[in-house]
Amino acid sequence: SRRGYSDTVDVGEAMRAVARGWRWVLGGTLVGVGLGLLVLALGPVRYEAIASVTLMDRTEGGSSSLGLAGGALTEGLSGLVGLPAQLGSNVGTEAEVLQSRALLERVVASLGLQIAVVSPRHTGALSLFTDIRAEVSPEDYTFRFDRDGGSYQVSGAGIEQQTVAPGGDFILPGFSATLASEGVPESFQIRVRSKQEVVERMLRKEFLTADIVAGDLARVRAVATDAATAAAMANRAVELYLQERTSRSRGLTDGRHDLLRRMSDSLRAELTIASGSMTAYLEQETVFDPDRLGDLERAGALRVRVDALQVEAKALDDVLVRMAS
User: Fold this and answer.
1) From the CB of residue 254, how many other CB atoms can be counted at a distance below 10 Å?
2) Are the C-beta atoms of residues 77 and 68 closer than 8 Å to each other?
3) Cα angle vertex 94, ends 90, 96, to 5°?
4) Which of 122, 202, 307, 310 is deepest in the core (most CB within 10 A)?
5) What value does the mean pLDDT take over residues 180-191?
6) pLDDT (tens digit per residue) in 8-62
């Protein structure tokens, strides 16, 4: 006869099987928990900081309308006045500036990111050193600081042993860092890297990225092994970018102001010539002569030209006054 098979599960039989193998179940659970705790204790903990920045200067939104009279001069002037707004609206270009090598090099140099703390873990170089100066990029070396009385004995490859007091300078060829006066652990180990290495890692977006999240709003994300360094990286990148943008905007404004002044001088000289021609014509033609209608048309054209130049000169004066303020 054929034995029948049931598709149902016998709960009692399952519980008895678990009871028989409870040691394996408990052992597996404990091993999993232990491995998890070990990873948390020894694994790399990362802190993340995010800063936001608007890539376009919204104080100059859109093209400028000056209400000037028509003509090539007016069109050129309107385009010139609206130039910074047009450049500011190029979000892609501004995002490239925010992620450029030149700006990242300034971030690394200003924060001293060449120093990485090996131990104790989750300690940032900014909490150990108050000033990091690197005229040249040093070799990749590791150094150990051990407290000896009121000072620290520094040992490592490539240097003779140094004694550095809190508030004193740790010196390498072309590189120096001032040890913090307080809050320094009894012993710690650091790795000094070249600026080039750190910048290359930033360019590969390993621990500093900038992305456009909506319209002209960019988000700068920094990752580090300690919270202070992560926050400092994100904030400094935004700070240096805004300084760069302000410098470029100031240069454009100064150039625009100079060109407007030269255009104003040229316009006034042209207005003087046109006014003089108009006056001379009126003095000569005191009696209307029907046979000289061409002269009458010339007088009308001169009058229109003088009026247009006066309107443009007034508009230029208003623009210069607004720029000066």
Assistant:
1) 11
2) yes
3) 120
4) 202
5) 92
6) 656 777 777 767 777 787 888 888 887 777 765 565 668 899 999 988 765 544 4
